[in-house]
Write a structure and sequence with these properties.
The protein has eight helices and six strands; from the N terminus they run αβααβαβαβααββα. It is an alpha/beta fold. The protein has a single domain, classed as Undecaprenyl pyrophosphate synthetase (3-Layer(aba) Sandwich), CATH 3.40.1180. A six-stranded parallel β-sheet has the order 3-4-2-1-5-6, sandwiched between helices. The termini are far apart. The structure holds 3-methylbut-3-enyl trihydrogen diphosphate (2 copies) and magnesium ion (MG).
């Protein structure tokens, strides 16, 4: 287990990242299957390689001092994959947390789950809940895992909760909806990165991405290194965000 120091301002400037870093980065970790296929290996081998990438990227986000990182690990649509692949993903995830939780905790990270974990096998659910519980008072990087997550399901859930709470129509505004989403305690989503060339959201953070910047890269997720993350952030930092206003 290791403690990772934050980068100094000089180091961050040395990366060409002087200026305001994104507070909240979302990553659609795509391309594990293609990575394995290129090597004539079964898809779960790609998922395992993807877990290694995740380890490095979380550490990098921590060292850069990013406030929140949300990774898309399993979508509500991913249940349609072959059952062996779904099971392989679950056991990898359980393995990931068993292996990493001490280090994540020791580095002050707080694990947050986005999505409905009820349908998961007991072992997976327990492991995820333990990770959340154990790190709930940490104040470092908020490491959010979107698992059995779909943005449409998230919005439907929010609407249900609002109705259940008995809100009157005129009380319903954007703030109330936002407060009923899984992301309620997180900073605004600034940047969405998708690896492996596809240019779509695939039901990831639809509400939250309203004014996010998108960076698409051809790099497959298992090949996405800390250097690639810094490249994506650099692209983000060159963008002009107008939020509907006239700027400059
Ligand atoms: C992303 O990689 C991981 C998950 C969706 C869980 P894929 O498994 O989608 O890889 P490709 O898109 O088939 O290459
Ligand atoms: C999105 O990737 C979901 C995750 C990365 C977990 P998919 O590979 O499932 O998305 P599509 O099917 O290409 O849209
Ligand atoms: Mg994919």
């Amino acid at each position: 287990m290791r403690i990772y120091e934050r980068y100094t301002r000089e180091q961050i400037e040395g990366f060409g990242l002087a200026g305001e870093l994104p507070k909240h980065i979302g990553i659609i970790m795509d391309g594990n299957g293609r990575w394995a296929k290129k090597r004539f290996m079964p898809r779960p081998v790609g998922h395992r390689a993807g877990m290694e990438s995740l380890h490095e990227i979380v550490r990098e986000a921590h060292c850069l001092g990013i406030e929140a990182l949300t990774v898309y690990a399993f979508s509500t649509e991913n249940w349609q994959r072959p059952v062996q692949e779904v099971n392989a993903l679950f056991s990898l995830l359980t393995e990931y947390f068993a292996k990493e939780i001490d280090e994540l905790d020791a580095n002050g990270m707080r694990i947050i789950l986005l999505g409905d974990i009820e349908p998961f096998p007991d072992k997976v659910r327990e492991c995820l809940k333990d990770a959340v519980e154990r790190t709930k008072n940490n104040s470092g990087l908020r490491f959010c895992i979107a698992i059995n997550y779909g943005a449409r399901a998230e919005i439907v859930r929010a609407v249900r909760n609002i109705v259940k709470a008995g809100a009157a129509p005129e009380q319903i505004d954007e703030e109330l909806v936002s407060r009923n989403l899984y992301t309620k305690d997180l900073p605004e989503l600034d940047l969405v990165v998708r690896t492996a060339g596809e240019q779509r959201l695939s039901n990831f953070l639809l509400w939250q991405a309203a004014y996010a910047e998108f960076v698409f890269t051809e790099v497959l997720w298992p090949d996405y290194t800390p250097e690639e993350l810094r490249k994506s952030i650099k692209i983000f930092m060159k963008r002009t965000r107008r939020f509907g206003r006239v700027v400059g």
